[in-house]
Amino acid sequence: MVGTLSRAEFDLEVAEIRARVVNEVNELGETALFTATFISCSLVRFHLGLVMKNEFEKAICFLMGGSKEAEEIGRMAEKAVEEGGLSYRNLMDLIEELKGCAFEKKETE
User: Fold this and answer.
1) Per-residue pLDDT of the chain in tens (109 residues, 90 and over written 9)
2) Are 43 and 13 in contact (CB under 8 A)?
3) How far apart are the first and last CA of the chain?
4) Taxonomically, which superkingdom (predicted)?
5) Across the chain, which distance is largest between two alpha carbons, in Å?
6) CA dist 81 to 13, 33, 71, 95, 109, Å?
């Protein structure tokens, strides 16, 4: 059965899950970025009716459950956000692009 939520309910659920995940992941000493992103994408798919509730629950349990696969995903996510990792580089590129936009905006004012 696919759940349907109002936009406000959906936003509230996303915020609550992100907060719980970030707290839980930080306690485990793992990166929250990958997990929170994965959960956010899953919530969007769930809200759009693209994924069943039990599939979403399985994904959460998989990532938070401590299986060998989940541990490997955690290690990969940590590498991605380390200095020089793909996520790190992408974030730095985004920051530089935003700085450039802000600088260009100041010049035109």
Assistant:
1) 345 667 777 777 777 776 666 565 555 555 555 666 666 666 666 666 655 666 667 777 766 676 777 777 777 777 877 888 877 888 888 888 888 877 676 677 6
2) yes
3) 53
4) Eukaryota
5) 54
6) 26, 8, 16, 15, 36
CB atoms near residue 77 (< 10 Å): 22
DSSP per residue, 36-77: HHHHHHHHHHHHTTSS-HHHHHHHHHHHHS--HHHHHHHHHH
Contact 13, 5 (CB under 8 A): yes
Query: Do residues 81 and 87 make contact, with C-beta atoms less than 8 angstroms apart?
Result: yes
Helix, strand, coil fractions of the chain, as percent rounded to 5: 80, 0, 20
